[in-house]
Design a protein that fits this description.
The protein is of the alpha/beta class. It is built from 17 helices and eight strands. β4, α9 and β5 form a beta-alpha-beta unit. It is globular. The two termini are about 20 Å apart. The relative contact order is 0.14.
Length: about 325
């Protein structure tokens, strides 16, 4: 049961893979629409398969699920379903990751992927006031040359894609593999982020910061293994987009009680809470807040700080950030510890 304070708390989500919001029910609906045979007999069979032991075991099923996404309407429906969930949990701003390569490699045009997602986000803003940004992620298990080709495909969409990122299999695919791609992306005025320090070592976080010159680190929970890195993150206020349920599901931590979210927050790092791939990991953003609060005994003031961090870490301009923080302050004024 989600605490009403958490559900209604104004918040931003900065780390959610739109493909990872594909619920089994929608997966089956789209498979039927597009006449695709799934390797699962039922929705319950899909859910039983969500028993991951590491990042790669999750990715294997994740990429299998993307096969049902074929038409612009599919990407619209996928995004619209996420929007409905986000609105119900009072997400005021979202910055979603998109993996074009998992679709273009199947012959789906970049435009089909982009236009379906963008139209849903545009409709969400006009109907619900939900602001959003799109972040294009490169699949790090593929080559840097393929990433560069994808970046070139994205150039006509610079008005709607605000940043590029790096996701997929972290082990053995260090950030430096993509230095030239990120150099080109920054030259084209894209902002940059990167997954680092989830399964990979703290050195990957350093590489993302120094070589890719990212604005924030996605995950980053292994930073505590390097005190110099922790000090740097605090000094520079580099945000971490942490995903508690994901980290436990993928065995980054053995249990939520062992998660270092509270420790990192209290050290002064700009930590945020996010859902990552909520259809696969058992919860959207409010469920992540709730699980962290319950297991780590987060105070109301710590919950409020996490929400404030989500606005501060966003790619919104200062005026929009301040307006959302004021909304948060109004909501929490009579409810703080």
């Amino acid at each position: 049961m989600i605490n009403q304070f958490i559900r209604n708390l104004p918040k931003a989500e900065l780390h959610v893979h739109i493909e990872g919001t594909l619920e089994p029910e929608l997966m089956f609906k789209l498979a039927e629409r597009n006449q695709i045979k799934l390797p699962f007999e039922s929705i319950s069979a899909v859910k039983k398969a969500y028993n991951f032991h590491n990042l790669q075991s999750f990715l294997d099923i994740y990429y299998q699920g993307t096969q049902v996404l074929q038409q612009e309407q599919d990407f619209y429906d996928l995004t619209w379903a996420y929007v409905q969930k986000a609105i119900s949990q009072n997400v005021r701003h979202t910055e979603i990751f998109v993996d074009p390569q998992s679709h273009t490699d199947r012959g789906i045009p970049f435009k089909v992927v982009h236009d379906g997602i963008y139209q849903a986000l545009k409709d969400a803003e006009s109907q619900f006031g939900l602001s959003s940004r799109i972040i294009l992620c490169f699949l790090r298990h593929l080559s840097a040359e393929q990433a560069m080709a994808t970046l070139k495909e994205a150039l006509p969409y610079k008005e709607t894609i605000i940043a590029v990122g790096l996701d997929s299999s972290e082990q053995g695919n260090p950030p430096e593999k993509f230095t030239a791609v990120f150099d080109r992306a920054r030259a084209e005025n894209f902002l940059t982020v990167a997954h680092a320090g989830e399964e990979g070592p703290p050195e990957y976080i350093w590489s993302a910061l120094k070589l890719l010159q990212v604005s924030r680190i996605d995950h980053g929970v292994r930073c505590e293994e390097d005190q110099e890195l922790v000090d740097y993150l605090i000094k520079k206020q580099i945000p971490l987009t942490v995903c508690p349920l994901s980290n436990v599901k993928l065995k980054v931590f053995d249990s939520m009680e062992q998660h270092n979210l509270k420790k990192l927050l209290n050290l002064g790092i700009c930590v945020t809470v996010n859902s990552d791939d909520p259809a696969y990991f058992g919860g959207y953003i409010a469920e992540n807040y709730q699980a962290a609060m319950d297991a780590l005994k987060l105070s109301q003031s710590e919950i409020i700080q996490l929400a404030k961090n989500s606005f501060l870490a966003s790619f919104l301009d200062s005026e929009a950030k301040n307006a959302l923080i004021e909304e948060l302050n109004s909501y929490t004024a009579a409810r703080s510890d």
